[in-house]
Design a protein that fits this description.
The protein is built from ten helices and 15 strands. It is α+β, with helices and mostly antiparallel strands and about 300 residues long. The chain has two domains: about 1-80, Alpha-Beta Plaits (2-Layer Sandwich), CATH 3.30.70; about 90-310, 3-Layer(aba) Sandwich (Rossmann fold), CATH 3.40.50. Strands 6, 7, 8, 9, 10, 11, 12, 13, 14 and 15 form a ten-stranded mixed beta sheet that branches. Strands 2-3-1-4-5 form a five-stranded antiparallel beta sheet. Helix 1 (about 10-15) crosses helix 2 and helix 5 (about 105-115) crosses helix 6. The protein is globular and about 65 Å long. S-adenosylmethionine binds near residues 128, 133, 148, 236 and 245.
Length: about 300
Amino acid sequence: MARYALLISPRADAAYFAQSQEVARAELAAHMPTAEIESISHGDMHFLTLEAKAIQLTTLLRLSFVQGVFELTDGGLTPVNQTAEFALHPDFIWGEKYRGKTNETLTQLLINLCLAEHPLAQTLVDPMCGRATTLLWGMRYGLKTAGIEQDPQAMIDLQRGLKKWTKLHRTKHKLDQGWVHKNNKHGIGKSLDFSADGAFMRVVTGDTADVCTLLQNRKFDILATDIPYGIQHLGGKNTRSPLETLKAAAPAWLASLKAGGVAAIAFNSYLPKRDTLSEVFTDCGLEVLSTQVEHRMSESILRDVLLMRKSL
Ligand SMILES: C[S@@+](CC[C@H](N)C(=O)[O-])C[C@H]1O[C@@H](n2cnc3c(N)ncnc32)[C@H](O)[C@@H]1O
């Protein structure tokens, strides 16, 4: 065992704002539940410190808030000379900028919270995947990923982005378009497959409530998604709350998870409230886990994550 200091990245401050230290602590505690975590500061640099084994360094380096890991010795802080060993160039995640994109750091947090509960997970589904920030993050972790998105333009933009980044970084890859079932009306059933660096992603255009049929009843270890906040995205049927869409989709989301699988849903806790959202999924049989990472994004968005497990 050695004592390590994890430097909190400015990216985490940008994602979690005033609550960045609390969110960082919650993420670290989810992975190291028995560790004694302390906060220290050097000038404007803020660290979380803990005792850990060298074998746990990759996990620490992969935490969403971490800019660098240092070993604490009598002489001070020694940077750990190790990388997080992610697949794909970071530009695949951070390169694209578009309205409604989920914050990249928050997306990584969602996956990390799930992996803390399910370290052996190999597959991930995002049933409201937009332009695939979560799926690409999943690929960086080496997961096989799949997603559903109702907006046909998202697939067009995603494909353009993938072509750009694979060309720029000379990434050996496969990119194929197809149909899971033919229904040309609004492009429903259109699919895009992307594989690179040993990881895989499939995106299908369609309604989230049809996730099982659109993904041919495949089951996943992790469901991670960022639902519409009722600000940039309407919640379906032209209401501002995503609740009706989620009620209709919840049984299919549950069915798309394997027994023992874990779900992380990012949401604006003003709409719907945590209890109301929890009820939608507990009614279907998911168990809500205790982790909470509430943080303010703006005056109208207080973001939180609902973490749940499907029983074995
Ligand atoms: C917060 S955004 C997710 C953004 C995504 N994580 C990204 O970074 O690109 C929510 C997404 O849910 C999609 N959505 C809303 N209702 C849906 C439905 N019924 N079926 C499928 N997708 C839906 C929206 O079109 C939007 O792209």
